[in-house]
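= Protein in question =
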Amino acid sequence: MEIVFGFLKITLNIMIIEITQFKLVDGVTEESFLQDAENVQKGFLEKQAGYAGTRQLLKGDGGEWVDIVHWESLEDAQKAQEAAMGSETCMPMFSKIDPNSIKMLHLEQIKSWK
């Protein structure tokens, strides 16, 4: 996003963080799921417009997983989500996720510390 004040132009790096929480279908191995997640990363996500190059996959003690993806805009995230639903690359990973367990958020990053 660019903001212009007379001759001064300021570029703001607004980031959209997609957070998806889910559980795997009973009987799915972590190893097979991680291989499918790697395939989605290389074969789908990295090719999407607006993918900001950061993804984290987290696992909790109770079998819950969280997939965090950074996008340049909400529109980019939504377009990628639509494309993923018809992607042969994504289907193996999606088939291992319990659809009733999915919770997804798209949040605007306000501040970041390192």
Q: What stands out?
A: The first strand starts at residue 2 and ends at 5. The chain has one domain: 15-108.
